[in-house]
Amino acid sequence: MDKKQRTGAERMPRAQRKQLKQRARWSVKQHYGVMLSVCLLAILLGTEFTGSLDFLKVQTPTDVKVEREVLEESEFGIEQNNVWKVVTEVLAGNLEQGTQDADRLTEEAIRKSEDSGETALGRTNGVLANLVNDLTSGLFFVKFVKGFYRLGFSQGAILFIVSVFVLTVGIGFWFLVKNVYRAAGRRVFLECRTYEKVTLQRLLFFLRSRRWMNACVNMLMQYVLYILWSLTIVGAAVKRYSYFMVPFIVAENPEISWRDSIKLSRRMMDGHKWECFLLELTFVPWKLLGIATLGLTDFFYVNAYKTATLAEYYARLRRLAKEENLAGSAFLNDTYLFEKAERGVLSSVYADMVLQGVGAVPMHLRGVRGFIERNFGVVMYSRAEEAKIWEAERHLLAEEAMEEIMNRHAYPDRLSPNPIHRRSNHFEKLHYMRHYTVSSLVLMFFLFSFVGWLWEVNLHLLSDGVFVNRGILQGPWLPIYGSGCVMILLLLYRLRRAPLKEFLATVVLCGFVEYFTSYFMEAMYQTRWWDYSGYFLNLNGRICAEGLFVFGVGGFAVVYLAAPAIDNCLRRLKPKLCVTLCVVLLALFVCDGLYSAAHPNQGKGISASSAVMQDAQGTGDTQEADSSDREAWGTNTAGTHFVMARRETARADGGCIPGQGSRGSCTLVQIRTVRE
Q1: Measuring CA to CA, how many Å separate 128 from each of 81, 133, 191, 640, 648?
Q2: How many domains would you assign to the chain?
Q3: How confident is the model at residue 650 (pLDDT cuts 50, 70, 90)?
Q4: SS3 state of residue 285
Q5: How far apart are CA 347 and CA 405, in angstroms?
Q6: Has residue 412 been placed in a domain?
Q7: φ, ψ dihedrals at 544, nearest 5°
Q8: What is the pLDDT of residues 445-454, one digit of tens each?
Q9: What pTM value is reported for the model?
């Protein structure tokens, strides 16, 4: 059918439009969580729906008044958060003035955080607090430029390097992520209209099929051509609908060239631009409702509903193109993205995996040993029996994935024109759902305890140039690291198949352990071995956000990488040797624990005793107290710098410790000195 025959021949009646939207509502209902997440990521990336978070920007008259007062108030004669002024000063060659402005902004932020009494939002100590301060004051940019000055670069060269760096990062992010996300999101919506089981991992379809760069080029050329046509009088309106189907075409076939995708979209939209406009026009009432609700309805429903409707519209135009044998319709070759495969076809394509799943019976023990194995992943029998159990578990995992495909609930990757490439076999050796033996867990406890001790000792050595035997024990181990890793492996065993849940649970578990460890150690010895007061997002100085984040990332690495790799090495050792090592290490650890219970490891850089602080304050020996405070600067259990500051809020000389001193008593010079 030529263009004249198609023009106006396939007008979509109102009933069909209603039917499309009805199917879209069903799709949203079935996959609401996934679709909402896809749209939310689009908002965060700035790709689409950017006005849907306007409800977060609402300010009461009181808020506006307070904000205006904050902007107008400044002891130093500069506006708060005036980062752009710092940047312009530095780029103009006034490096010293820019540094002073950045320092003043930082010091003012610290003072206001202390005056507010919000100790949980401390801005004085810690990596996270320093990062927030550097970014909000422009000090990060100042340090960046200073580094180039030390290397002998001129002002013009620095300006050029900074400009190139900013442009490279910005353009790279836009091209590789923001630009292609529209097509990646459309892929998810197209699968949602056909299949019941769709996850956010489908956003990586282009990456797993090794067609990401080609998809990026397609979306880039659509954008470039649209911008060029927008320079004409009617180009913006016409070409918007001419190229309307490009993201959907790329979502179906990421291997297509940009020329073919553009041509095919134009042919598919010939005679359908007006009906597409009318289809979008039906969402105007929803748009007005979104304005009235400050984007709430858009955020929670309309964005997903409209995109799902457009996915249904694309499926309709695709069907018409195939029926009419439209030029280029051969590129629309992902048949099973729009219809489910027959069970016979699936059985033949996945025959090898079906046979592997036959007879895969779970091998579990009974009684107490079986309960421990199923819930904690711990086995107490020979390596040969454990290997059999893992082999059965591996078959069951594959069978679960196969069940979704064979029941036609999930998209069959093997039937895709762009098949998903399998991961390297190197990762298969690090199977994380394994069962660990008791000897492996004991040895990993001591290994991680020793690694944690080395971590903190070396950080203290690098920062202060002094060797400090960290921890309450005398030996080279920090049990909080080893026990934390083992607890993650045991208590969170059943969450390993869900990485996000595993990460969040790790953060909660490690935070609980660190908080109550600090509490009981202080109650027993009247001493705090760490204090996060002044850290950004801390809780009573016992835990803080950056420490928990490090714990979460570290625990994630332990579960999915480190522990399986270490266990692979331990499997090469003879069982008798492993048992002997466990007995020797446990005996040494028990002896160290008994001795340290009566004589805990205390001293410079380890703890801050309240008794020492009170004695120093009672005698008026402020110099000794200051020395004790500075010596208490060490490293925290998360590997970042921390301050063992005394609890007293005033000293004889009127000085203060950041985050602990009397409100407003610290001078800017004192704050800067202590921070350094």
Answers
A1: 18, 9, 40, 9, 25
A2: 3
A3: very low
A4: helix
A5: 10
A6: no
A7: -145, 165
A8: 999 999 888 8
A9: 0.59
User: Nearest-CA neighbor of 313 among 336, 281, 280, 339?
Assistant: 280
Look up residue 558 and give its DSSP letter.
I
Determine which helix (DSSP H) or strand (DSSP E) holds 258, and give its type and residue range. helix 258-269
Q: Where are the beta strands (DSSP E) in 443-564?
A: 527-528, 538-539, 543-544
Q: Which of the residue ranges 47-56, 327-336, 436-445, 573-582 would you say has the lowest mean pLDDT?
A: 47-56
The SS3 assignment for 544 reads: strand
Position of tokens 């996060």? 532
In a domain, 86, yes or no: no
Does 176 fall in a domain? yes
Residues 496, 371, single domain; the answer is: no
Do 453 and 492 have their domain in common? yes
Helix intervals (H) in 126-154: 127-137, 139-150
Same domain (yes/no): 313, 387: no
DSSP helix/strand/coil, 47: coil
> Domain containing 521: what range?
438-598
- Which pair of structure tokens corresponds to residue 306? 């409209």
Beta-sheet pairing, 436-437 with 527-528: unpaired
- Spatial separation of the C-alpha atoms in residues 181 and 167, rounded to whole Å: 20
- Of 243, 396, 249, the closest CA to residue 318 belongs to 249
**Do residues 640 and 546 lie in contact, with contact meaning Cβ atoms separated by under 8 Å?**
yes
Burial class (CB in 10 A: 0-12, 13-18, 19+), 379: buried
Please give the angle made by the CA atoms of 155, 158 and 159, to the nearest 5 degrees: 85
Over the chain, what is the mean pLDDT? 76
In a domain, 125, yes or no: no
